[in-house]
Structures are given as C-alpha cells and as structure tokens.
Design a protein that fits this description.
Helix content is 34%, strand content 12%. It is an alpha/beta fold and 154 residues long. α5 links the parallel β3 and β4.
C-alpha cells in the first residue's frame, strides 16, 4: 500500500542554513507519521536555473505537486508569511485537500481575536476545532490526538 503524500510548503529552501538546519526536522517529523514528504526544493533540484524559463518550470512543477499530493502542510512564519507558500496553500484549499498550518513565530499578523494569522489561511480548516490543524512546534506535529497524526493513520 502506498504511503500518503504531503506537500511541505515552506520558504526554508531559499537559505542554505535553513535548508540544512530546519527542513530536516520537518521532514523527519512527517516521515515519523508514515508520510511520504514532497519537499519542493528537493523535488525541483533537477531544474537548471541557468536556462531561460526556469522560474516558470519550477512554479508549474510545484503546482503539479500540490495537485498530486494527498495533503499540504504550510509553514506560515513571517509577517506576512511567504507569498509562494500562500499560493500553494490557497491552491490546496481550492482543491479541497486536507491542509495543516505550522507557525512558531510569536508575532501576530491579524485583525482577528480568534485567529493568529489572516483568517483566509484558515479557510481550509474546520470552523470548530481548527486548533487541531494548527501547530506551534515540531514536537506537536506528531501529537496523536491532533489532526495531522489522525489523518496520517488513515
């Protein structure tokens, strides 16, 4: 039986330091749930950035992966969060994919008292219990009582 796939939407591949120190922790946590992790910087590593049109090719491959993945985890740190992550999250929401949000950034960037971020980021989460789809630490990703671990179990 094939493992479920999760697209890891994050800006952490743009920095060698983040790629080396942050991404492996997220990937390990998700793999620990039995998931196949689609990390776009690793999956698009074969793109030749010296070729004309490389950016379009990367964007198309990333969007195809969002379409093909079973779910999406968006790292939504920053004020505002990364634009590319927001497009990937929006596409996953529009496609009806299960979406999960990670934010360990203590800064608030919202007008809402209920949500810690722009309310549109929560459009793919349930109105009641959205907190079970929102993670504020790497350790919480494996919490067996929260939505990601329950979804991963199938």
């Amino acid at each position: 039986m094939a493992r479920s796939t999760i697209y890891l939407a994050s800006p952490y591949g743009f920095s060698e330091q983040w790629k080396r120190l942050l991404l492996p922790e997220f990937i390990a946590a998700l793999e620990g749930l039995g998931l196949e992790v689609w990390e776009p910087f690793a999956r698009n590593g074969q793109v030749d950035l010296a070729q004309p049109g490389w950016a379009y090719a990367v964007a198309q491959r990333d969007m195809q992966d969002v379409r093909d993945a079973d779910a999406l985890l968006a790292i939504v740190n920053g004020t505002p969060p990364d634009e590319g992550v927001m497009v990937e999250l929006g596409a996953a929401i529009a496609l009806g994919k299960p979406t999960f949000l990670f934010r360990d950034d203590f800064r608030r960037c919202t007008d809402s008292e209920q949500y810690p971020l722009n309310l549109m980021l929560f459009a793919g989460l349930p109105a009641e219990g959205w907190q079970d789809f929102f993670y504020d630490s790497i350790k919480a990703l494996s919490d067996p009582g929260k939505a990601l671990a329950l979804w991963a179990k199938g």
